[in-house]
Amino acid sequence: MKDFFKTCKFDFSVANLKQLPGQSLGEVVFAGRSNSGKSSLINALTGKKNLARSSKTPGRTQLINFFSIGENLFLVDLPGYGYAKAPKGIKKNWEALITSYLINRAEILGLVLIMDIRHPLQDRDLALFDIFLPTGKPIFVVLNKADKLSRQQALFQQRKIDENIKSFYLNSQVLAFSATRGIGVETAKKLINRWLTESD
Ligand code: GDP
Fold first, then answer.
1. For atom 19 of ligand 1, which residue has the closest CA?
2. Average pLDDT per run of 10 along the chain, which is 200 residues long?
3. pTM for this structure?
4. What is the pLDDT of residue 87?
5. Does 34 contact ligand 1 (Cβ within 6 A)?
6. Which of 13, 37, 107, 172 ranks highest by number of CB atoms within 10 Å?
7. Tell me, what's the pLDDT at 164?
8. What pLDDT sits at residue 191?
9. DSSP string for residues in 109-135
10. Pocket of ligand 1, candidates 34, 36, 38, 40: which has the most ligand atoms within 8 Å of its Cβ, to mutate?
11. Which of 71, 60, 53, 66 has the alpha carbon at shortest distance from 7?
């Protein structure tokens, strides 16, 4: 199978929807709370240690960051949510931008939602399911930091969360994962590669 991740590199950032690329053939979107390990996940998938650090450099943290993974295909890193430092007005504008992008962008192939396996399905996570539901597109839930649990606990948690999510979002898949230990990396790559191949 073609490995799209190998060629991944930071491409550009956008601050509003008018700046979105016209040429895109497909976008895989990554979202999650700050500190859930979104950058670590992107680095683990691409095998590049500091790739996603670029999205954390000041100024880029409130932007939508595009990583190119092939001819007009992109990984899209949304800003982490949860730690509210921005003033309320700015946050509102920002949320409207993300919501509009997720709902209206036809090029989006699917959403990868990263959560800490020990603290899943918080309010802002649930809000994302609601926003994305009308698109009918798949959500891949990555339960990161599985190394903090025993293997058995992690699998139990994966099953429990999967059952819960399926009750309100059928087009979903849930995976126990550890960016630091490399648990689930191959499975995650396969799934995302499938989204990309189908669009290719
Ligand atoms: P982001 O804010 O969502 O991009 O999260 P980061 O990738 O910066 O990770 C946040 C913190 O969680 C860092 O201290 C990472 O070292 C740690 N972390 C990330 N992935 C894992 C994991 O799989 N296991 C453990 N134990 N820690 C992790």
1. 37
2. 85 92 95 94 91 65 88 93 71 85 97 98 96 97 98 98 98 98 97 87
3. 0.95
4. 73
5. yes
6. 37
7. 98
8. 96
9. EEEEEEEETTS-S-HHHHHHHHHHGGG
10. 40
11. 71
Quick check: 57 and 81 in contact, CB under 8 A?
A: no
CA 174 to chain centre: 13
Q: Which of 35, 38, 118, 148 to mutate to test the pocket of ligand 1 (most atoms within 8 A of CB)?
A: 35
Pairing, β 64-68 against β 26-32: unpaired
Q: What gap in Å lies between CA 102 and CA 110, rounded to an integer?
A: 10
Residue type for position 22: G
For the chain, the DSSP string reads: ---GGGG-EEEEEESSGGGS-SS-SEEEEEEEBTTSSHHHHHHHHHT-TTGGGGGGSTTTTTSEEEEE-STTEEEEEPPPBS---S-HHHHHHHHHHHHHHHHH-TTEEEEEEEEETTS-S-HHHHHHHHHHGGG---EEEEEE-GGGS-HHHHHHHHHHHHHHHHTT-SSEEEEE-BTTTTBTHHHHHHHHHHHHHHH-
Atom nearest to 52 CA in ligand 1: 4
Token output for 90: 């700015």
